[in-house]
Specification:
Elements lengths: L10 E5 L5 E6 L5 E5 L4 E6 L27 E2 L21 E2 L15 E6 L3 H6 L4 E9 L5 E9 L7 E7 L2 E3 L6 E4 L5 E4 L5 E4 L5 E2 L4 E5 L5 E6 L4 E8 L3 E6 L1 H7 L11 E15 L4 E12 L2 E2 L2 E2 L1 H7 L1
Antiparallel strand pairs: 1-2, 2-3, 3-4, 5-10, 6-7, 7-8, 8-9, 9-21, 10-20, 11-20, 12-15, 12-17, 13-14, 13-16, 16-19, 17-18, 18-21, 19-20, 22-23
Length: about 325
């Protein structure tokens, strides 16, 4: 459907892969994003040149109950796997609803290109995780093409009991070549290494570079992290609020071959840098609400002696 005069609507609900409902957001200057109601899952974010900025596997299954491989899965009510819950929780393989009249949503963006989704537990969910909640997710495109995700989780239980959860925006960035990428902003921070039984270390390098499998949870991280793609001369800037941790993951060649819904060579073109709350679970008493916000931008960047020229990024971000 299109608006009068042939203009495309800022928000359009339509069918995607496997007949699943999706919402397409379009900003006036040409950037776009798409969100599947299945999983409340952002599967595309394109700049005003139509370049895809998120990675989605060519083998991704858009077939419930399997989660979608790539984009921005929502990990809730747990990150990773422990206890009786499935890995990364159940929010990413439930069907969310569009909320037509959401409660007031204080936000910096006045963008018309936004959608409000809501997830409430089913009776089956309450059997595996016996807590009443409302999870509201706003996905918005800013005027400059920035992608903004705001999550609000409220404890709606009437039994007087608090609950605790961990959380991550499991963002898959599209990169030209993983060996040409560096991540800045996490140096000198402690991390838990999932490849070494969650042992705690301190990051020693002046930036994170990639030459083998990595699966680390960086703790008490800054609100801003930069992902520099040398070949594309592009920097992704991750800004986060309410999410103290950051997960960095790439499966590399051996592990990639063991992941059924990931192509053997696709690890070269993806990098997960995830805004998260993992180390210290969030606890909500009845009626309390938590908010976690993620803002992604992609800006042109240049290198000087192998380093990012910070002035270029500051001027263009």
């Amino acid at each position: 459907m299109a608006a009068a005069g042939g203009d495309k609507l800022p928000v359009e609900v339509c069918k995607g892969f496997s007949g699943l409902d999706r919402v397409v957001l379009r900003e006036a200057r040409g950037s776009s994003a798409e969100v599947y109601l299945y999983g409340g899952h952002v599967t595309s974010w394109k700049n005003d040149h139509g370049e895809e900025l998120l990675f989605v596997s060519s083998k991704a299954a858009f077939k419930p109950p399997k989660p979608i491989r790539g984009g921005i899965p929502i990990c809730f009510p747990q990150f990773a796997s422990h206890g009786g819950l499935e890995s990364h929780g159940f929010a990413r393989n439930r069907v969310w609803s569009i909320e037509s009249d959401p409660p007031p949503f204080p936000t910096n963006s006045a963008s018309k290109a936004h959608v409000d989704l809501i997830l409430k537990p089913t009776e089956e969910d309450l059997k595996i995780w016996p807590h009443s909640f409302e999870f509201r997710l706003r996905v918005a495109l800013g005027p400059g093409g920035d992608l903004l995700l705001t999550s609000r989780v409220r404890n709606t239980s009437t039994d007087g009991k608090p609950f605790s959860f961990t959380f991550a925006y499991h963002t898959y960035f599209a990169v030209s070549d993983i060996s040409e990428v560096r991540v800045e902003g996490l140096e000198t921070h402690d991390y838990l290494d999932n490849l070494q039984s969650k042992e705690r270390f301190t990051e020693q390098g002046d930036a994170i570079t990639f030459e083998s499998e990595i699966d680390k949870i960086y703790l008490s991280t800054p609100t801003k992290i930069a992902i520099l793609d040398h070949e594309k001369k592009r920097t992704f800037v991750v800004r986060k609020d309410g999410l103290p941790d950051a997960v960095v993951w790439n499966p590399w060649d051996k592990r990639a071959k063991a992941i059924a819904d990931l192509g053997d060579e696709e690890y070269k073109h993806m990098l997960c840098v995830e805004a998260a709350a993992v180390e210290k679970p969030i606890t909500l008493k009845p009626g309390e609400e938590w908010k976690g916000r993620l803002e992604l931008s992609a800006v042109p960047s240049s290198y000087c002696s192998g380093q990012l020229d910070p002035q270029k990024v500051l001027q263009s971000s």
